[in-house]
From TrEMBL:
Pfam families tied to this protein: FMN_red (PF03358)
Organismal lineage: Bacteria, Bacillati, Bacillota, Clostridia, Eubacteriales
Domain NADPH-dependent FMN reductase-like: 5-156
Protein name: Flavodoxin family protein
Keywords, comma-separated and alphabetical: Flavoprotein, FMN
Length: 212
């Protein structure tokens, strides 16, 4: 079996040195890499130029699986997303919602509808999960996690949770003013657990797909 590819996407507008979300994703990467045969890549949306979808439907008229109006950093990210067997999206909570950077990333998948039409099983053997960081203990983490899961549901990507206290995905707390570095050891350990499980599920789905 070919290597399982996991894509980790950091939706924080902060550079990695100041991003608690990036720290959580690094822990998930550590967990995923503990599984044999898994290749992990972490990409940041920080500093990338991604125009928002204007819902002109030109991609559909052009029969394209990607936007044909804007050519920016999404050109590269489409390929990474489509080729991944597992995807973990991390995002801080901004006013009980996702960041503007992640919202624009979301919006550009209007065109991927074509992939599901051409191949109904394109997304069904992929797995997705979320990691969310709030500025307070009850700061909207579940609302943002639901948004991440909604993206996966829209595409028919299987949602991975861990159970055992990590019900929907890994949720962390870190002061939102950036005054301290990440100090949530339980949350970070949950990220490792989530990364490990996503890798295991992605590996099982890929093996099952090859047997169909």
């Amino acid at each position: 079996m070919d290597k399982v590819k996991l894509l980790l996407v950091c939706g924080s507008p902060r550079p990695k040195a100041r991003s608690a979300t990036y720290a959580g994703l690094m822990a998930a990467m550590e967990g995923a890499q503990s599984i044999d045969g898994v290749e992990v890549e972490l990409v940041e949306l920080f500093g990338r130029k991604i125009a928002p979808c204007i819902h002109c439907n030109k991609c559909l008229r052009d029969d394209s699986d990607r936007c044909t109006v804007f050519h920016d950093d999404m050109d590269e990210l489409y390929d990474k997303f489509f080729q991944a067997d597992g995807i973990i999206i991390g995002c801080p909570v901004y006013d009980m919602n996702v960041t503007a950077q992640l919202a624009q990333f979301y919006s550009r998948f209007r065109s991927s509808w074509k992939l599901s039409v051409d191949n109904t099983s394109f997304f069904q053997y992929k797995v997705g999960a979320g990691i969310v960081v709030g500025g307070t203990r009850n700061g909207g983490q579940e609302a943002v996690l639901r948004s991440i899961h909604n993206l996966f549901s829209t595409h028919g990507i299987n949602i991975c949770s861990c159970g055992g206290g990590i019900y929907g995905g890994a949720m962390l707390w870190n002061p939102g003013d950036g005054s301290t570095t990440m100090d949530d050891p339980i949350g970070i350990d949950n990220c490792r657990t989530l990364g490990r499980k996503v890798a295991q599920v992605a590996k099982a789905l890929k093996a099952g797909h090859e047997m169909v």
